[in-house]
Design goal:
The protein is of the alpha+beta class. It has one domain: 3-Layer(aba) Sandwich (GIY-YIG endonuclease). It is built from three helices and three strands; from the N terminus they run E-E-H-E-H-H. The longest helix is centred in the last third of the chain and has 14 residues. The radius of gyration is 12 Å and the shape is globular.
């Protein structure tokens, strides 16, 4: 099984959202179908970054690293690198 850390972008809000999941397609669709209260105001979201990991703990660590940076520049750098 694979696990993912991902970043979404909402042009409407000009904001990024960072998360992790074991099913990237399902989770992305949930965000864009108003099933997530934390992202419903930003629909439509674009998937701008994802990284695959072999364990859930690795994906969570990366999510927390991104969130603790609290830096739009850091996120934009990740997105630019792909």
């Amino acid at each position: 099984m694979s696990f993912f850390t991902y970043i979404l972008y909402s042009e409407k809000l000009d904001k990024f959202y960072v998360g992790h999941t074991n099913n990237l397609i399902r989770r992305f669709n949930e965000h864009n179908s108003f099933q997530s209260s934390s992202t419903k105001s930003g629909v439509p979201w674009k998937l701008v970054f994802s990284k695959e990991y072999s364990t859930n703990s690795e994906s969570i660590k990366m999510e927390l690293k991104i969130k603790t940076m609290k830096s739009r520049k850091f996120i934009e750098g990740l997105v630019a690198k792909g």
